[in-house]
Amino acid sequence: MRVLVCVKRVPLTGGRMVLTEDDQALETRHLGFTISPHEECGVEEAVRLVEQHGGEVTVLALGPPEAEEQIRDTLAIGADRGILVATDGGEWDPQATAAAIVAAVRAEEEFDLIVFGNESADSGNYQVGIRVAHALGRPVVTGLKGLSVEDGVARCEQEVPGGRDVYRVPLPAVVSVLEGINLPRYPSVPAKLRARSKPVETVSPERPGARLEKLRLVVPGGPGKQAEILGEGAGAAPAVVNVMRELGVA
Amino acid sequence: MAVLLLADPGDDELTRQALTLAQSLGEVEVVGSAALPVARAHIPELPGAYAPGAWATALEEAIDRVSPSAVVAPGTNRGNEVLAHVAARRDLPFAANCTAAEGDVLTRVRWGGSLLEEARIHSSLPLLSVAPHVLPAVTGEGAPEVDAFTPALSDSDLAVQVAEHVEETVSGVSLAEARVVVSGGRGVGSADGFGILEELAGLLDAAVGCSRVVTSAGWRPHTDQVGQTGTKVSPDLYIACGISGATQHIAGCKGAKKILAINTDAEAPILASADYAVIGDLTEIVPAITAELRKARSQ
After folding, report:
1. What CATH number is attached to the domain comprising A127?
2. In this complex, is the C-beta atom of B89 within 8 Å of any C-beta atom belonging to chain A?
3. How far is A118 from chain B (nearest CA, A)?
4. Is the pLDDT of residue A224 over 80?
5. For position A248, what pLDDT does the model report?
6. Which residue of A230, B8, B196, B198 has the fewest C-beta atoms within 10 A of its own C-beta?
7. Helix (H) or strand (E) run with residue A168 in it
8. Cβ contact, residue pair B166, A127, below 8 Å
9. What distance in Å separates the CA atoms of residue B243 and residue B249, rounded to the nearest whole number?
């Protein structure tokens, strides 16, 4: 089966959010980058499906030219080829993102399954997968914690209060997954080397105007807490138990 | 012009929080619940098993009847999903997880609430979902005028529908509902290292949680993860053992009434989110707290 996974390059944010001077983006000069967590699991899920059923995993990222690094990371854990939808680094709104993905997909031989993360770690728009499915006229199931394919039908599981809801949809289909659907593997050194020679194709569409237009980012005023130090080492235990009693939980 | 609120029948509290934002935009009519204090409720007759396409069609029919100035839904899985379907069908922009809106400018959360975005939505019909647990809930029962209708569903509306529900019983204390959570991060050091956290949790009738580093390392299952991509918790006391306090983790535990950090590093970011801290080695401190609790109870 042919599986496409769409991933997003996002900064590794650490302990504090710091904005650029124009409030348009996170200050990333001192940050590393990664793939959104849900999508990391999406890649792993696609690789497992292809290991089981045969076929090919393609990974698509819409982002700056540097997003090729994240595509290479997925090629090192078993994806076969990449498509970079290269931007000038500016942010694309969800409709523009979906339209660019649809255009890239239409230029390809049909995919049996297109996998998204349920929402990206940074902008969290909860909609790109649904928009792509709609444009392609395919069924879409979101928020999956379980996925298997048999006889051309995807069995999709969502975690809901009290258990799991199960959907069955015929392929070709679109799904979005959540972290926890699997535990992604780490790449081996030889696999990282092999990933360097796998093909990554680049397309560079024009960015349309935003209909959900970011004006600026704001770091929320935190509670401004200064933790009360109860003590150091084991000697602080009585003070901790006092606090628990005050809170009525001891 | 009225504002339409799509209710999530599975989450009254978040629906009522979304009603707060909807009321700030105008007079509200509701789709999918007749229990809210509003003037009019549109109740679609739909198949028992949830189908997002059927709900989207029901909402579209209500939109056509009411011609609202905006459509609002709670930022639940279903609220976001149904609005995204309507947005895709009508090629309209959709802003997920908003905390405020005025005119065409809105505020929405990013990074699970660690960052806010102000945005302008260019649309004749803004579609907005409301971020959970930011706004107060509207209280009180209502007796709205009920307008029942049967949406004209197509086959494709039912192509994706819940086919089966598998019951699962959760053993132990539920992480989302626990009054106390004893949580561990990288500083716990190994899967076995969680033994002392489990012992303390057992004594406090608490749930055991962990950070993303821990689940990525395979020390604990993902169901134990507290964070932006894990469970959001709101206990009376959250005990963060060996957790540095990455924004990804704080997004999951900031709902706690009080946070106690146990950390070797007095400069760790977690201390800026914590109410109390003990500085030092958790492998000494956690068993000492357990022993102190036992001693206190035996007296």
Report:
1. 3.40.50.620
2. yes
3. 10
4. no
5. 96
6. B198
7. strand A163-170
8. no
9. 9
